[in-house]
Amino acid sequence: MGFYLLKRLLLMIPVLLGITIISFTVMKVAPGDPVSLITDLNPNMNEEAIKRIRAHYGLDEPMHVQYLKWLRNMLMLDFGRSFASDNRPVIDKILERIPITLLINALSMSLILIVAIPIGVMSAVKQDSFFDKGTTVFVFLGFAIPTFWLALLLMILFGVQLNWLPISGFRSLHYADLSFAGRILDIAKHLILPIFVSGFGGLAGYSRYMRSNMLEVIRQDYITTARAKGLDETTVIFKHALRNALLPVITLLGLSVPGLIGGSVIFETIFSIPGMGQLFYQSVMMRDYPTIMGILVIGAVLTLLGNLLADLFYSLADPRIRVSG
Amino acid sequence: MKLKEIAILVTLAALCLTTGCGQAPQESKTTAGNQQTPPAAKKQYEPAYGDMIIRGSIGDASVLLPVLVSDSASGEITGLIYNGLVRYDKDIKLEGDLAEKWDISDDKLTIRFFLRKDVKWQDGTPFTSKDVEYTYKLIVDPKTPTAYATDFLKVKEFRVLDDYTVEVTYDKPYAPALGSWGQAMHPSHLLEGKDVTQSPLKRHPIGTGPYKFVEWKTGEKIILDSYHDYFEGRPYIDRVLTRTIPDLATMFLELKAGRVDQMGLTPLQYTRQTDSQLFKENFVKYKYLAFGYSYLGYNLQDWKFKDKKVRQALTTAINRESIVSGVLFGLGKVTDTPFKPDTMWYNHNVKKFPYDPEKAKQMFAEAGWKDTDGDGILDKDGKPFEFTILTNHGNDIRKNAATIIQNDLKKVGIKVHIRVIEWAAFLKNFINKRNFEATLLGWGIGIDPSQIDIWNSKKTGETQLNFITYQNPEVDQLLDDGAATYDPEERKKYYDKFQEIIAEDQPYTFLFVQDSLPVTSSRFHGIEPAAAGIMYNFIKWYVPKPLQKYHIEP
């Protein structure tokens, strides 16, 4: 087991290197750079000023030199400074945005699991029933409705008409004056709409996945055996079937780890939440190379770790695929 | 407001980047005009200190050290914290700001500034000529990554005469020089000898202005409090809170819910969504022309557009009024020259080409374009009249205007394609490489009328602004003369002639100037719309005691 783990971790290094090389190249091949965005079509700019700014960012050097410099800093865990005009350390920009994105995504992920797994199980058990068809329509509705549209409608209803919930942001303007409990309540109120909207959209995937896993499992021989033993249906479904049907969900969860810090542009823009999605989008639009690379590296590491964790948990949960050694 | 914001505005392109392109420009990004909506009749109230204004902004600021600022969101904040030596008043005339007065030598080469003696930086240090000297050196320092060096590199000599007098000398008379000193002054005692790109002042600015920095939560809000020792007196409104709300629909909902006091409306919101009685009671809408115009520019290297007769015919064939009414809901104005129609520089007597498809057909025929093969498309030398209008992605107003033009030109027998391309790729692969036939774009209109960079024959190199390759020695001369003339009346003659030539040549089809559409909560009093917009007298805005909504602990 220890050897397996070591091997997997070592294998991550060339994969990561490959990912960064490809990302760096694609990013550089895309037209435009942070300097041209400031200087193009700007009457205040002359050749000399443009050269000066390019040199300031190190963009006057050949691409491979730029990459190697970036890699060298990266090996010392230095993410560099942003090319956006704030010029702040990339790591600061990422760290100040991760908590809120992580909080929202973790909560909405939990919401999805809490709702989707029972829906999936019940739909499978009562296949083709009214409940099955009803929830199918419901979850696909959530999948199909554009997030921004649903968000705006809910904002008009709860924010403007009823005035029950805040419309945007994740804390009130007087947040600093609140007591500890008041702050938690304040953030909770701000998060209700975002979490509901993102959770509603994500239901379909997990519930349908759960349903098909469950359908497969309850057709297995051992379920028939369990029933033949005279076990009651609840025990059969929730003890024997569910545990096996949940196994593939582990893989999905492993894959969703990087998504936890990913954030979504549309959703964060609508709710004015300064999260990772917005940061990444703005960085791409501004050709802020260090920030883009920083986010990509963190995403790549988390994806690889997520895969590894999923494999490990899988082998823990399912003796059949336990690795020897 | 302050000059630096206007300086930031130099290109609509820059503005477009920070506002998400095509959304209505925000109130203080654009500053002049007339024909504002008269504010509803108000009861007479006494000015009072207190309360807070919450402004909505689509983008967060990026840096608050003026010399490094290149986006309007940052410029709007630093405009309240810093001052320049001069500024534009409500009628867009230069007046003293940190400089009490100035003398211009008879040969127009030297300007001597007399500084105010009662100005203190927000940390208590007196403001002196040392700060002016430092700011000048900072801007011209090749190591400073700033967008404002061009004007200051023209200075031949900078001299400090005493603590409150400085003198600058230029090689040759340069009319935009005086206005360029509206650039914000930086505190030498905090920055001297340090690398400004690493300075803590980038996120904790200290200026001489009416508001001082309190707090900045990235992507969320920036708080400024009034500076009680401001040299023009304490501003009435105690706090200015700028919220970053990247989505205009969300911002509008926050406005209606009372959690935003001021924002810029889109033409759609202005005309269709602000009519309720409740809205009219709680908000006041303003409307004035923005400092920028949109145009259809023809690549003059392309054989189809070389003949000015063809370009005149194209303008005649395009129904510009219908673009203003259809795309801008009437909130804008057709323009015929590259100046703002309500300023003194605009020449109303230039040759015009009003919409007339029949006449356009005739003009095309005179230029040799006829439909000889009967396929409904004009042709010449066996080649059909067909071209592509390029414009940038994310600006619906431009895209829609292009569609109307496409339809108008179809009626006279010209086949037009529209291609919308992401901004950076658009500039790099098409505009800078001169790889386009026609392009729909916009320019910001600077307060100073100098437009050399856009029209000079030599400014045609890659990344330079005369990308349509307009070359006319007479125009070059007129613009050079204009820039070297100080007296406005004298100067206007050159620009009048320049506009006549441009109108005759039609290198662009000038399309329209959009309106700025700010809206403000009606509890704010003292707003007096003028040529410069509404923000110029912000420190005189107040909320009468009985209407105050927020209590700010001093």
Walk me through the structure:
The complex is a heterodimer of chains A (325) and B (554). Chain A has helices at 2-29, 34-39, 47-57, 63-75, 90-125, 130-144, 147-161, 180-218, 221-228, 233-262, 265-270, 276-285, 289-317. Chain A has 325 residues and is mainly α. Chain A starts with a helix and ends in an 8-residue tail after the last helix. Chain B has helices spanning 3-8, 12-19, 72-81, 129-140, 149-153, 177-180, 188-191, 248-256, 267-272, 277-282, 308-317, 320-327, 357-366, 396-411, 423-431, 452-455, 473-483, 488-505, and strands at 50-57, 86-88, 94-96, 99-104, 110-115, 155-162, 165-170, 211-217, 221-226, 237-244, 262-264, 283-285, 288-298, 332-334, 379-380, 383-384, 386-392, 415-421, 438-444, 508-516, 518-521. In chain B, helix 11 runs antiparallel to helix 13 (357-366), helix 12 (320-327) packs antiparallel against helix 14 (396-411) and helix 17 runs antiparallel to helix 18 (488-505). Chain B is globular and about 80 Å long. The chains are: A mainly alpha (325), B alpha+beta (554). Chains A and B meet through helix 2, helix 3, helix 5, helix 7 and helix 11 of A and helix 2, helix 5, strand 10, helix 8 and helix 15 of B.
